[in-house]
């Protein structure tokens, strides 16, 4: 009998109180370079909401405008500093507790986010999350190219990443946690979905409990 239970969590606005990518870039680039990059990328940034520009390429463009062809080891170090010093202040205690509750019940917890994996994986390790499905930066000869490697992990891509990850071992029960339009498809895939502000957190059951037959 398949009794696998997976809990898929969005990160920004779900586990955090605000956009972690913006906070990471401000921390890594500093205020002056952050503002300069924002001004250079303004046409693309303001075009995201009405759909004139794509989220993923715009995010990649902004990172390059702020940091240029940064070396991977330098950005890894910046990511580690961010996770240790700045990110904790953005975390929601009640959602960290929810992650721990799933883990205590034997559920597989996975982070599914459009933000870059370069700092998400470092943070996930601190709370015992072993799987991170996120946007990946493209590197060439150890330097950032200004592009994403693959698709932005947003909307339908979140479902595609989840399906590719579990392959033939689809869960009997999927919990999905999100906060925005980018999480809708993932929520629709789940038996138990929660979008911030729309409903109370769903009750939990151990692996092999309700919905797992």
From TrEMBL:
Pfam families linked: HAD
Protein name as annotated: Phosphatidylglycerophosphatase C
């Amino acid at each position: 009998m398949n009794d696998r239970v997976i809990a898929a969590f969005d990160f920004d606005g779900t586990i955090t109180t605000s956009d972690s990518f913006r906070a990471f870039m401000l921390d890594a680039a500093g205020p002056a370079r952050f503002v300069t990059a924002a001004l250079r990328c303004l046409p693309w940034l303001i075009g995201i909401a009405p759909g004139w520009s794509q989220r993923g390429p715009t995010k990649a463009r902004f990172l390059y405008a702020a940091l240029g062809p940064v070396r991977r080891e330098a950005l890894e170090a910046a990511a580690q500093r961010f996770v240790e010093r700045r990110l904790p202040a953005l975390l929601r205690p009640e959602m960290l507790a929810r992650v721990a509750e799933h883990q205590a019940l034997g559920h597989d917890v996975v982070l599914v986010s459009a933000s870059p994996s370069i700092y998400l994986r470092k943070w996930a390790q601190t709370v015992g999350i072993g799987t991170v499905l996120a946007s990946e930066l493209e590197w060439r000869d150890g330097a950032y190219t200004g592009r994403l490697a693959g698709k932005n992990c947003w909307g339908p891509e979140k479902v595609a990443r989840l399906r590719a990850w579990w392959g033939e071992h689809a869960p009997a029960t999927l919990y999905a946690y999100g906060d925005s339009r980018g999480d809708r498809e993932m929520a629709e895939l789940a038996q138990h979905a929660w979008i911030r502000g729309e409903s109370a957190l769903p009750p939990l059951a151990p692996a092999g409990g309700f919905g797992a037959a």
